[in-house]
Each structure stands twice: as structure tokens, then as C-alpha cells.
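ingest -> validate -> predict -> emit
validate: passed (alphabet ok, no gaps, 586 aa)
predict: started
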Amino acid sequence: MSDMTPDPRDKAEIARFFGTSTRAAALMAQVDWRSHPLGPPGGWPDVLRITLRNMLASPEALFLVWGESRSLFFNDAYLPIVSRRSDQAIGACYDEIGSDRQPAIARVYSDAFRGLAARLVDERMDIGPAGATYPRWWTFSFAPIFGDNGAVAGVQGLVNETTDIVMHAESERRAAAALAASEHRLHRAQEAGKVGIFTIEHATNELIGTPEFFRIFGLPQRPSMPASEIEDMVVPEDQHYISHSDGRRSESIGLHVEYRIKRPDTGEIRCIERRAEFERDEHGQALRLVGVVQDVTERHAARAALAESNTTLEARVRERTAERNLLATIVEETDSLVFVVDCDYRWLAVNRAGVAEFRRIYGEPPRIGERIHDTITSMPEHHTILDTTWGRALAGEEFTVIREVEYPDGSDRRTYEMKFNVLRNEEGTQIGAFQMVWDITERVHAEAAYRQMQETLRQSQKMEAMGQLTGGVAHDFNNLLTVIRASVDLLRRPDLPEPRRLRYIDAISDTVTRAARLTSQLLAFARRQTLKPELFDVGQSVRMLSEMIGTLIGSRIEITTHGPDAPCIINADVGQFETAMINMAV
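emit:
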């Protein structure tokens, strides 16, 4: 459309032919038709003028798309659909202003221009007053308008808003879907819970049940059945539990009962639980019995199995309790000392022997829940020792230590073997540590006496070896004295040459040295020594013993010593080694 001012003659023509009482006619009068493709209204074809007059007078929402220019016309009832663009829409090309807001209509009205009537039902078009958009639905009818030459000159559309109808239908659809889903969930719940629902009418004694109800009783599903059929399925012993027509009418039946039935399809005996209540009229008169049933056969079997299991479990618990009590009695009555602490150094348990010995040493008993340091106040010097030993155990280490402890009054000194272990719960998490303590004082004394006896035995073995050595040593020592005496006699000669005199002096010196070494070896061998392992060269020790052994066995036996040039180091008691070598030679 043009921005030029409308020609007064066109306004007069529109007012004369269409009137100006409608808003749509007034909008038509504001258009500059002389610059429009359709031209002045006075030149419009009669079919267009008549169609527009009828459209403007109609109470229905109508619009008209005319000519090759696709010029849009509409009446007042159509104005809310055009909304705020109504002052620009009349005379405008519908393809330009309608395609963005009414794409569905644009697709269909083109078929009408080809002479095909068309209709869109419940088409969503989100428009509203003043351009506001919210979900709305419409039904459009399209009809071709034929010109004088029989060709399609335009398309007229009829619009009806169907939002309320669509929303109502959608609401009903959702309600129906929700109801169906609810019924499906209820049916699933009944199947999952194996719960059947029933109603018994008092007037007719007719029973109506759900599919699960019929499945529980082993009956084919049907709309209704006489309640007496269910009553006849109850075993004779439980007939007084089932409801009968007289009892229902007098309301003398039990509302929560259990009874057994014999299923007609399998012949099984099943246990049924029934819960029910009466539905009454406005006067309080019972009209029907409504309730639920459930097959509780497995529940009864499980209950019986549980009772049996509980009996067995109670017996096992008694056995385990007896075992634990026996173990606790053994721990409590044993002479071994048992101490248990948690990870915070607090006493968890102490047996009777442990309490008594602890009291003798520290003057007071350990108290459950108290920290070790708070209990041991008489000997604070023991705190460091306790931190070290218990700390190792609480860090996850398992070990054994031996420690001497003197009573505070000095009356006794005892030796204890202490074994520390990690204390864990059933999940394997450390929750503390425990200590097993044994008084090994007598054992230590016995071991010391045994070691003393062993030392005495070794000394006796040495003395025996010394006795065997005596003869040989005396002979060798006599030979050494003979050499010394002969050398002295020769040195008394006045005519002895100087070289020979010096040789005899050296012989005397060497003989004295040999005698001194022999004496030293004998003293070292005979000296009482305790076992003291040390590192020494075996080859060197053997070479030193060879001379003594040579004296022992005499000159008729030759001794040859073979040893490595490199040192051969061992860790042993030297005296024990030498005694063994001499004993082997003897």
C-alpha cells in the first residue's frame, strides 16, 4: 500500500456502497486505492463489491484474498486475529503479512486459488489481543470466488476459534489417559501385591471381582458370580470364618479373617486373608460388603519357617553363648595375664590374673575406660616404655618383648614375656590391641642355671684336655731346658770362638721365647671364659695352635698346616674353637 492520502472520491464510493459503520469499512476508506493494484473502488468488479458487502455484514470472522496481488480484506469479526496490524493489513498482500503469522493458512489457501475448497480443523495459531501470544486453536474454511469469466478471482475464508473445544477435548483426553494410567497402575499394583478387590451386593448376593481376585481363587474371570461359590470353596474347618449372606446382612461377620480354600483348578489348599468393610446408604443401612483378599500361603509358610529358624537360631545362640562363656571363663581363670586397650590407650578388658599382678606392681588395679597413663601414677618412668610398646601394637605391629619389673617395695624382681597383638572388629578394622603376658622368672632362672652348668662342663673338658697335654708339655719343656743347659755349659768354655758364643746365646734366647709362648698358650687355654662370639681369622688361629698340638702329639707325627693366603673370617667364640681343635687332635 502507498503512504499517499486517500482520494475523497474513493472514500465517498466506499461509504456509499459499503457504509462506514464497521471498523473494517473505515479501514478500507483509509487506503489510497488509486495507487493500489486493484485501482479505485468504483472500478472494482461487481463480484468483488458484492462479496465484500456480504463479508462486512457477516457476524462470522471472514477474510478475502483477491486478485493476482493477493490483496487482503476482512470484516470486524476478523480484527482480533489480525490484531495490532489491522490498520496496515487491508489491501496489503496476504503473502507478505500472513506467511509469518499464518503459515498453515498460506499453504492451504493457495489450493483454493486453484479452485479447490479446503478446510483446516483445530489448527494451532498462537495469537491474542494486542499482539499477545498464547496457545489458541482455529478452524478455517476456504472457498474459491469465481469471476465473470469463470476463473478463480479470489478466495474467501471463514475462521472459527476452537480453543475451548480443543482444550476441553485435551483435558478429557488427559483425564482419560490419567484414569487409564491409574487403572493400569492399580492393576499392576494388585498383580504385584497379589491383592484382589471384590464387592458383594446384599440385595442380590452377587460378587464382582477384579482379575486378580479370580486368579487368587483359581476361577475364570467373569463380570459377576454368586458369592456362594466362594463360600463353598472354604474347607469345612474354616467355614465359621467365611461370610455368608445372613451374616453380611446382620453385620455379624468378622471384617478381618483368614481361611483356607481348595482351589478348583489345581486342588491346592491355599490360605486367604480377607479385609472388608460395609458401604452404607444415607440412612446407615449396609448395602454391600467391599474388601480385598490376598493369598498368604507363602507368608504362613515363611512364618512357620521363621519360627523354626528362630528356634534353631536360639539354639545356635545358646551354643555360641556357651562357647563364648567357656572361652571367657578360660581367659578369666588362666594364669596368663591378658590386657586389652583401644586406640586411645583406654582399658577395654583385663582378666583376673592381670588385675592382681597389675595391682602388685603399680599399687592399684586397671579401671575399664580409663587411660593407661592415668592408672599408672606410682611409676611415671614407665610411661615412656608403655608409649613405645603399646604404640607399636596400636600402629599395627605384632611382636614379643621380655622385660624385668621390680616391685615397688623391692621384695621381688620378676621377668615377663609380653606378646602384643592387633585387635580388629568383624570388618577387619583395627580397634585396639591386646597383650598376653607370662611370668617367665623361673624359666629364666632355670636357663641361667643351665648355662652355668654348660660353662662348668666346658671347663671340665678343658681340664681333661690339659691333663692329656701335661705329659707332652712336660717332655717338651724338659727338652727346652736341656737346650738351655747345654748352651750355658758351652758358653763357659774360655776358648769358645765369638761366632759360636753368639749362636749359643741366640739359641738360649729362642728357647726361652718358645717356653714363654708355650706357657702363655697353656694359660690362655686353661683360663675360664664365658662364650663370647667375635670375628676372627680361622687360618691365623689354626697356625698359632699348630705348635701346641705338635708338642702334644710328639715328634713322631708331622704336622702340616694348609690355609688360604686371604683371611677367612668367622663369628664364633675363640676359646670354644681352640678347645674343639685340641680335643680333635688328642
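The chain has a mean pLDDT of 82.
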